[in-house]
Design a protein that fits this description.
The chain is α/β, with parallel strands linked by helices and about 600 residues long. About 30% of the residues lie in helices and about 20% in strands. The chain has three domains: about 140 residues; about 280 residues, Rossmann fold, CATH 3.40.50.300; about 90 residues, no CATH class. A twelve-stranded mixed beta sheet has the order 9-8-21-20-19-10-18-17-11-16-12-13. The protein has a six-stranded antiparallel β-barrel with strand order 1-2-5-4-3-7. A two-stranded antiparallel ribbon has the order 14-15. The structure holds adenosine-5'-triphosphate and magnesium ion.
């Protein structure tokens, strides 16, 4: 073990604040008689209260500091003992929330700290301020319980900038984590730092949903940041945009329509208010099933053919689906006497077909409906998934998926389909062969909205992510939810998160959501959220021993999310008509 283990925390009278005067289930009131020490016991500082034995201290955090002035009779003046005079004296107190228990000796071990108070302090017990060398020793202790190969260094403690804040990497990812904070508070940088630290694990496996193409620099620091001294740590994929369809670049990602299950597909093309919707859905289902079956027959996949369903990801030509639907829509029926009568579905599918056709023609949906011919091969899917879940030695286990050119109305379907597909494949893999992976969902409010506000398309995606949030732990699939608007993110998903990195959060509604996610005892600690500096965060959850305020480390490869300096730029950055003209054309082309 390392050296801090031997540095015992000892208290002297100089650190004695006062004694316990009131105790309830989570909070302790301490009357402070050391007026000199009071300013140093500011909100957020750590204190130790003598426990039931000499070796035990209860560790708490100052939540409130008060000084009340009181008038009392002054001590009698021996020279004029008959005159009564009053004097004003301060009553100092701090309110403390209990967080853990520290023991100088526990069995054979020395200096142990654990979460949770083992006992309640008794009235009149002494309370000490933890500062100076004691604070350093204590902060050292916090990371010590975490084994070397589980350590995720995330920053430094604000209370003691010399001490490194270490998170238990296993616990952090095991049961979902969340990074929340207002715009510009440092979330994307925090994600970069976490990715960078993860990169040091030989088989790190993370899939980043990048909504603005911010993390492109991690895959190409030379091209994006002009930093040839930095090695790339990730592979970037881009959901194919309208400009990529004719000759798709190597990293363009297609999600052909046949990967969508029945409900996902229908959420995009079926109008549920149409009186013919049930007919349309049933004809669609029947034809898709038949077309998938035809493919299996052609590919001689008789084993699959026995048990496949309409939701199985099996390629089929969309043109044939359209032909079948059109046939239904126009075919006449035959009457009792053989005369032509109105067909069973005649005219009932017209609007469904029109909606499908408009999607097929729209190049923004090309990544789905205009896949290159090789993506229509039966074996293509396995290769594509192998690339997305690749974390072999000396390859990049961090995969950045750039969604910046995906139309916003289908964003939830695309993220949802991708997540479901990878999750399902992990599900069907042998348990001993699964490398766990994490979906990093940046800007989660865009595709994981609160349920009652969501459209049919969004509900599909939500169902997938909520399923991962609830069951993913067992299959080694976890979520890292990142959002500037926690009040707009699905509560089911947030409430499944066990670890939180909370950066500056100014909005009331968002703060309330965060408060409700935390135990009651954290209320005082959370009051400081609007005051946090950029890059400062509260770490809460089972991956850290104490809820602590940390200054997050800077990533060595910055994401492309620099805050612009308006005032300085107005001093030296002129507009360029040419640049604007080019942008107008780019907007028309919908391709960079
Ligand atoms: N740990 C840090 N220390 C100092 N400055 C930081 C730190 N993290 C971020 N910053 C600064 O804050 C700016 C914004 O950070 P970032 O892009 O991470 O914000 P964000 O929370 O992701 O915002 P948005 O919600 O708008 O995406 C960065 O450009 C950087 O200058
Ligand atoms: Mg960001």
């Amino acid at each position: 073990m390392n050296k801090q283990n031997n540095i015992a925390i000892t208290f002297s009278d100089a650190q004695k604040l006062g004694q316990v005067v009131s105790v309830d289930t989570s909070r302790v009131l301490v009357a402070v008689d050391n007026a000199e020490l009071l300013p140093r016991a500011a909100v957020g500082s750590l204190v130790a209260i003598q426990g039931t034995t000499a070796q035990e201290y209860l560790i708490g955090m100052t939540e409130r500091v008060t000084r009340q002035l009181r008038e009392q009779l002054a001590t009698l003046d021996p020279l004029s003992p008959t005159e009564l005079e009053s004097e004003v004296v301060p009553d100092d107190a701090i309110r403390v929330v209990l967080l853990g228990t520290y023991r100088t000796v526990e069995g054979k071990q020395r200096n142990r700290f654990k979460r949770g108070a083992d006992s309640f302090p008794q009235i009149d017990r002494e309370c000490f301020l933890i500062e100076g060398p004691n604070l350093q020793a204590f902060m050292g202790l916090l990371g010590e319980g975490i084994a070397e190969n589980e350590r995720l260094e995330i920053g430094r403690f604000v209370l003691d900038p010399d001490a490194v804040a270490i998170v238990n990497g296993d616990r952090f990812f095991q049961r979902h984590a969340s990074i929340l904070g207002s715009t510009g508070s440092g979330k994307s940088w925090c994600v970069s730092t976490i990715l960078e630290k993860s990169h040091s694990r030989e088989h790190a496996n993370l899939i980043v949903f990048d909504m603005h193409g911010e993390y492109a620099s991690l895959a190409d620091p030379k091209g994006k940041l002009n930093r040839s001294d930095l090695a790339p740590i990730a592979t970037q994929y881009r959901i194919a945009g309208p400009g990529d369809l004719d000759s798709p670049p190597e990293n363009a990602l297609f999600l052909p329509y046949w990967l969508l299950n029945r409900d996902e597909m229908l959420s995009m093309i079926l109008d549920r208010s149409d009186q013919n919707a049930p007919n349309q859905a049933s004809r669609f289902t029947r034809h898709v099933r038949q077309l998938k079956k035809d493919t299996l027959t052609k590919e001689s996949k008789s084993e699959v053919e026995k048990t496949f369903t309409v939701d199985s990801p099996i390629p089929y030509p969309i043109k044939k689906l359209l032909d079948k639907l059109k046939h239904d829509d126009t075919a006449k029926g035959t009457g009792a006497k053989g005369q032509p009568v109105k067909g069973d579905w005649e005219g009932k599918l017209t609007r469904f077909i029109a909606r499908l056709e408009s999607k097929l023609e729209d190049r923004r949906y090309g990544f789905m409906f205009m896949p290159p011919s090789k993506a229509q091969d039966y074996d293509w899917l396995a290769g594509q998934v192998a690339a997305l879940l690749d974390c072999q030695k000396n390859r990049h286990g961090i995969k950045i998926i750039d969604f910046s050119e995906v139309p916003s109305d289908v964003l939830p379907v695309v993220t949802g389909v991708l997540a479901r597909l990878l999750y399902d494949i992990q599900f069907w893999m042998k348990p001993e062969e699964r490398t766990p992976f994490v979906f990093v969902c940046d800007e989660a409010h865009l595709y994981l909205p609160v349920r009652q506000d969501s459209s049919t398309v969004e509900k599909q995606a939500l169902a997938t992510f909520e399923r991962i949030a609830k069951e993913g732990r067992k299959y080694g699939v976890s979520l890292l939810v990142v959002s500037q608007r926690p009040s707009d993110v699905s509560r089911t998903i947030l409430s499944q998160c066990n670890n939180f990195v909370i950066l500056r959060l100014t909005n009331d509604q968002d703060q309330n959501v965060v408060r409700r996610l935390m135990p009651d005892s954290m209320a005082g600690v959370l009051d400081g959220l609007p005051m946090l500096d950029t890059g400062e965060a509260l770490l809460l959850g089972d991956a850290v021993l104490l809820p602590t305020r940390v200054k997050l480390s800077l990533p060595s490869i910055e994401p492309l999310s620099q805050t612009r300096n308006f005032w300085q730029d107005w001093g030296n950055l002129s507009s360029s008509e040419q640049a604007i003209r080019t942008a107008v054309e780019t907007l028309r082309k919908q391709a960079r």
